[in-house]
Amino acid sequence: MPEPAPPPLPLLAAASSPAAGPLQRARRRQQHHQRRGWRRPRGLLAWGALVAFFFVMNWWMFSRLQDPAARPHFRLRRHPPRADAAAASNSSSLSTLEEVAGTAKGKGPHRVMLTRLLALAAHALAEAETRPEPNDLWEEPINATMWRPCSDQRDWEASEGTNGYIMISANGGINQQRVAICNAVTISRLLNATLVIPKFLYSNVWLDKSQFGDIYQEDYFINYLKSDIRIVKDLPVELQSLDLEAIGSLVNDTDVMKEAKPSLYVKKILPILLRNRVVHFIGFGNRLSFDPIPSDLQRLRCRCNFHALRFVPKIQETGAILVERLHGHRSHLSPLKDNLLGQVAVKSAPSTNKSDASKYLAVHLRFEIDMVAYSLCYFGGGKDEEDELEAYRQNHFPVLTELKKTTKLPSAAFLRSEGKCPLAPEEAVLMLAAIGFKRSTYIYIAGAEIYGGKHRMAAISRLYPSLVTKETLLSPSELEPFRNFSSQLAALDFIACAAADAFAMTDPGSQFSSLVQGYRMYYGGGNLPTIRPNKRRLASILVKNATIEWQEFETRVRKLIQQTKQVHERPVARSIFRHPRCLECMCRIEH
């Protein structure tokens, strides 16, 4: 309908005068509302045009970052040529907002924020390719070079082990087993006992029948520690027929408190050992304190972990292949590689010039279903996720399931706000982008099958296309000897992570990550940085700042990572496996 013509000025004046009649005033109000009604659509149209403009610009910027030929899928190349890493950065897709961040069904505030931050990260990574990386990204603080390994030094006589025999059946995976082994070595010295080569319990979580000799060199272990304790492969025949439970020589984790002091073993275990000549520990996870403990025993525990436990040749050889391919078939000798790979390291090192080797970042994504289920956290998968994780808990963690029935446990939201949830891959990739790793960075992903599979890995594989695993670097025939042996596969991951130019963990509570960190700290000479996020502070950034911009997010994440990279001596009661910078394990050299 056409707009009415405006009335003449005299008429307007007459209509506005006090003497104007009611009819004239009514007509004036009608014309006024008609003009306002016409102006409102014009204002709405202008506002809509402005929004459309920004929408089109945002779409255009994303389309510039995409390769139309690449669709959202998670594909890791086998034996990726290192020369193609830069090309991969440009040719692989930086997915759209929905493709990168749509890794869960949930639409809560946390998911919305991740979606926005992943989009900002994509822009930041595209812009950062032409800029240098932060100076300290691949380095440790300078004072890290003051610490050198020295737990191999001894100043005591060998123990004769005459008080009896100690047996252990260690539970858990390779990481828990390693801790149990070195604690058993230390207890054997404390009690003047002979250690029988440890056994490993079968776990319905790890599903691995491997024993000590399938992972570690038995003879090397025995010979290296012969100046400390006596070790035998089997219990003497005359003791093998004993009913250890009947005579009270079977000791489980309920009989010895977690991180028990050495005095408890002298008071409670030594009398059993002297009476029955044998004690069998079942489980034995974290059953010896880190403080207080005599310094010589602490040094022995370090010596066991960092020197006495060497992988069998089968693992060393395949581990060497992994490291060679990760470093572009150019390797360099180092004390760490000598310990991890033994003689294989010498045979497989064509170059001794570190500058010839290519860099790679190793990332341990502790996001397998067992961790996700045990955490009691929620990761945006809706009722399907909740039902699946509850079924897993009932099958693998029945004690936790029963506890949920009788005890009010913290909510998933509270756990997340306190940093108690494992970082999902999309959260981990935000951390990597924020601290400055370029999109072309060559990244090795350690760990078992990620919960959520390819869909969950979409964000990290899109933002960092040069992504590899042991399954993509090794051929099927090279992997075949390790199939169905999760602990042996974990040993390959351990080698690749320990030897990496930089290592990033996503769960500082993970024993695997802790052991890798300790190994790199012990053998790295101040040249092997470990990125260890403070999850509680990171959670406060991700959960409580819904509108944070990328520059502020980047600044805050870098600050918290810098604080965790500070070099300091091991705090009291902290694990020496995780933090060996102490005078019992390492020597401090003043420059």
UniProtKB/TrEMBL annotation:
It is found in: Membrane. Its main location: membrane. Belongs to the glycosyltransferase GT106 family. Residues 11-24 have a biased composition (Low complexity). GO terms for cellular component: membrane. Keywords: Carbohydrate metabolism, Fucose metabolism, Glycoprotein, Glycosyltransferase, Membrane, Transferase, Transmembrane, Transmembrane helix. GO terms for molecular function: glycosyltransferase activity. It comes from Urochloa decumbens. GO terms for biological process: fucose metabolic process. It comes from the Eukaryota. Residues 1-38 are annotated as: Disordered. It is a single-pass membrane protein. This is O-fucosyltransferase family protein. Residues 1-10 have a biased composition (Pro residues). The chain crosses the membrane at residues 6-23, 44-62. Residues 25-38 have a biased composition (Basic residues). InterPro entries: FucosylTrfase_pln, GDP-Fuc_O-FucTrfase, GT106_glycosyltransferase.
